[in-house]
Amino acid sequence: MNLAKLPNERKLTLCRKYYMAGFAFLPFMWAINAIWFLNEAFWAPTYPEQKHIRRYVIISAVGALMWLVGLISWVVVFQHNRSAWGATADYMSFIIPKGVP
């Protein structure tokens, strides 16, 4: 879809829908929203709905970044401590590596 062909009200509605979808534990929707509407929020000629789109883009980018940092932190902690956690970590794993930890 080409955003340049949409009326400004429709852009705002679409941006808001992607923003709200991110609250359903779908952080990739926030990332898509931030990337897709980045140009409309900051570099397009000024129009009345742009202020709201800019707010949604900034919050979506921050939310997606927080999810990414949290996910990477969890992976690092889990991989570092998996063998020390014993059976508890095995229950959380899909693939249990063989051999001595």
Rg of Cα set:
20 Å
The number of distinct helices, counting runs of at least 4 residues, comes to 5
Question: Helicity, in percent?
Answer: 55-70%
Order of helices and strands: HHHHH
The proportion of residues in beta strands is under 5%
Task: Give average pLDDT, whole number.
Answer: 92
Q: Are there runs of 5+ residues with pLDDT below 50, and where? A: none
Backbone shape: rod-shaped
Main beta-sheet strand count, sense and barrel state? none
- Overall structural domain count: 1
How far do the termini sit from each other?
50 Å
Indicate the structural class: mainly alpha
Number of strands: 0
Task: Write up this protein.
The protein has helices spanning 8-21, 27-36, 38-42, 50-81, 87-92. The protein is mostly helical. The protein has one domain. Helix 1 (8-21) runs antiparallel to helix 2 (27-36) and helix 2 (27-36) crosses helix 4 (50-81).
Task: Summarize the SSE layout with pairings.
Layout: H1 8-21, H2 27-36, H3 38-42, H4 50-81, H5 87-92
Helix pairs in contact: 1-2, 1-4, 2-4
Defining traits:
mainly alpha
Would you kindly provide a brief summary of this structure?
This protein has helices at residues 8-21, 27-36, 38-42, 50-81, 87-92. It has 101 residues and is mostly helical.
